Structures are given as structure tokens and as C-alpha cells.
Hints:
This protein is an alpha/beta fold. The protein has helices at 196-201, 206-221, 226-235, 239-250, 262-265, and strands at residues 3-4, 9-10, 15-16, 21-22, 27-28, 33-34, 39-40, 45-46, 50-52, 57-58, 63-66, 80-83, 88-89, 94-96, 104-107, 112-113, 118-119, 124-125, 130-131, 136-137, 142-143, 148-149, 154-155, 160-161, 166-167, 172-173, 181-184, 190-194.
Amino acid sequence: MPKVHAATIVGKNVHIGKHTRIGPYSILEDGVEVGENCRIDSCVRICTGVRMGDNNQLLHGAVIGGPPQNLDFDVAIKSGVMIGKNNIFREHSTVNRSMFENRDTVIGNNNFLMATGHIAHDCMMKDRNVICNGALLAGHVSIGNSSFISGNVGIHQSCNIGDFVMVGGCAKIVQDCPHYSLVVGAEVGRVVGTNGVGLRRADFSPEDRKAIKRAFRTIFWSHLPLSTIKARLREDSNEHVQRLSDFLEKSTRGICSGQKRKAEILGQPKA
């Protein structure tokens, strides 16, 4: 049986899985579904429309499933948040439900949302991502797998963050960040190279890492027309280069530009 503190408020038709623990002064609104072996700390609010799987942790003050922060939103709309397994939501982190009837903000498995991190309405996040303290994901942001969003990063609405992306602290992201990229920049995020550390930790082979670097030189520092860049990527048989090609084809906001090389800044010939 779950262990629910006497000072917890539990609404109607709430499902709480086996061995889940809920601390004092938390609120589970009507219809909430919580899986097994979850830990819900004190003063957590889980709003109507939230469904979560097993082994999730929600620490003090987290609010999951609150209405979108949109002045025109009709709170009568029935929408929700769908959460997978093994996620951690640290203190005072927030996740908003969808703006649209019968739709969800979606969070996958094994993600880590640090204290005061915010995921807005209709975001889609897959697996094994880290969202650091104070990072802000505006509405309709998509994040792939195994990406790292550093502290106080701001991501504009409808941006797409690929797989194995590293975004440096305080960066301002206004366009899509391709798979495997390292992005920095407080004024505007720019690609400075591949996420080499992340790729090595994920056991990408030396051949794959070289192919990705080769593709990045073509995309960001060849100064070729986009049509030519896409054609060159399609000619490369490496699966990760093909994924980069697909990312470029599907991008609707355009991708972050590459930071200028030192040789270009100093007026030296390009390598």
C-alpha cells in the first residue's frame, strides 16, 4: 500500500501506486495518476490531468500540471501532463499542462529537472536529459535524448533541441540546436563545435566522432549554400551524419549559426 501523510490532500478518483510515499501538505487534485515506488515530498502540488509512471521523485515545492502561463488560456480546457518513469523533479520546479483540449505536455524517462527549472505547455522531452537550475523552456519546445541544458538557459518557443546536445550556461536559444552540438552564447546561442565529452561518454566510436566533426565543418564553417550542404551530407553514409541531414530538412526555425573561427576574426586565410 502507498504511504500517504495525514496532512496530504487527495482529491477524487486519484490513483496512487504501491509503495509510493507522499509527504505532508502536498495536494493531489482530482483524477491524478501516480505510479509505484514514487517519492512525493512535502508541499508538492500535482494538478488534474497529470499521469506519471513508476519511480519518479518530486521534491519540496514542485508543481506539476499547472495551467499554461498564457493570459488567453481557458482553464476549463481539459489537458494534462504525461510523465514516464525514473524522473527527478527538484525543489520548486514547474511543469505546465497543454494549451489544447485532450493533449499533453510530455516528459519521457530518466530525466532530471533541477531546482526552479521550468517546462512550459506542450513541450516534448524524451529520455535521459538534464535541465539545470533556473533553465526555462518556453512553450512547444522539443528536446531529444541525452541532452544537457545548463543553468539559466532560456529556450524560445518552438525550438527543437536534438540528441546529445550541450547548451552552456546562460545561453539564449532562438533557433534549433542540431544533434551532437555544443552551443554557447548569452546574446544568442551559437554552435562552437561538437559535444565531444558527451559523445565519448556515450561510447560513440572514434570513426563516428570524426564523421560528425566532418559534417559540422560542412554545416557551420564551409560557407556553402544550404542546398549544397544538404547534398554533401546526404552523400555521407554514416548514420549520424544522416541524422544531421534529417534534422536540417525538418527544421522550421532554422539552426543556430556557427561561431566565427579565430582565423576569420583575425582576418587570416581560412584553413
